[in-house]
Amino acid sequence: MRGGADRRQLAALALGGAAGALLRVWIAHRVGGAGGGWPWATFSINVSGALLLGYITAGPPGSLLAISFCGAFTTFATMQVEILAMLERHDYGLAVAYGLGSAAAGYLAVRVTAAARRRPVAT
Amino acid sequence: MSAWVWVGVAVLGALASLARAAVGGAIQAGARTARPVGTLVVNLSGTFAAGVLAGVVLSGDAGVLAGAATLGSYTTFSTWVQDSGRLHEEGDDSGAALNLAVSLLIGVAAVAAGHALGAAF
């Protein structure tokens, strides 16, 4: 029982991670580099992944596969490498806007979808 | 990119996700706080390593596999902001703000330090 459950959990973590990595790398590959501007690919990936994770975690214990997908789909390291590149170009305004903007948008995203799931409004 | 690179992205994404769960879980279990130190350690260590890769200017397929596939998947943005959402719901608003600010600021320091180390090689 325990062994089987553990193996299933590991499989869910691995599968979700593989899917998240594939989709993120594919999107980044298709969109290409930010070329000195706002990194829309990473930003959109991170905020959409935060929207999804906020929704999942607001409900009953969510699917480990979906949670792992969000974890791998979104990325912290790539965002920081992009911020470093902005700083090296002395584009400080963009670096601050992108860093703070990502954190704020991601935080708002999880709050908004969690609230929407918990308090469904009648339409 | 060749089909084998995409296979590599999937395999490394899976392994990196398992590593994130293992490292983050172990750090959090050893820490006597509800504040998300597990995610913090994962993100900062992965960001430092990504800085090293940027410093040694690893490009092409190797750069995609080591950087975007492995470190991109090992580190996480969604869990980071979700941790702050959870702290807010638990009434720990200062913890929520601190988590966002500390990760962001030390993350910049980590990627810069990694980059300097990588460039020195």
Notes on the protein architecture:
The complex is a heterodimer of chains A (123) and B (121). With 123 residues, chain A is mostly helical. Chain A contains five helices and no strands. In chain A, α2 runs parallel beside α5. Chain B has five helices and no strands. Chain B is globular and about 50 Å long. Chains A and B meet through α1, α2, α3, α4 and α5 of A and α1, α2, α3, α4 and α5 of B.
Largest sheet descriptor of chain B:
none
For this structure, the quaternary state is heterodimer
Low-confidence stretches of chain A: none
Strand count of chain A: 0
> How far do the termini of chain B sit from each other?
28 Å
Rg estimate of chain A, integer Å: 17 Å
Helix/strand structural class of chain B: mainly alpha
| Rg of chain B computed from alpha carbons, rounded to a whole number of angstroms | 16 Å
Mean pLDDT of chain B: 96
CA-to-CA gap between the ends of chain A? 45 Å
Q: What general outline of chain A do the C-alpha atoms trace?
A: globular
| DSSP strand content of chain A | under 5%
Order of helices and strands of chain B: HHHHH
Largest sheet of chain A: none
- Give the helix level of chain A as a range of percent: over 70%
Brief write-up:
Chain A has five helices and no strands.
Layout of SSEs?
The complex is a heterodimer of chains A (123) and B (121).
Chain A: H1 2-31, H2 40-58, H3 64-73, H4 77-88, H5 92-118
Helix pairs in contact in A: 1-3, 2-3, 2-5, 4-5
Chain B: H1 3-30, H2 37-55, H3 60-74, H4 78-89, H5 93-120
Question: Could you name the key traits of this structure?
Answer:
heterodimer; A: about 120 residues; about 0% strand; B: about 120 residues; 5 helices; about 85% helix
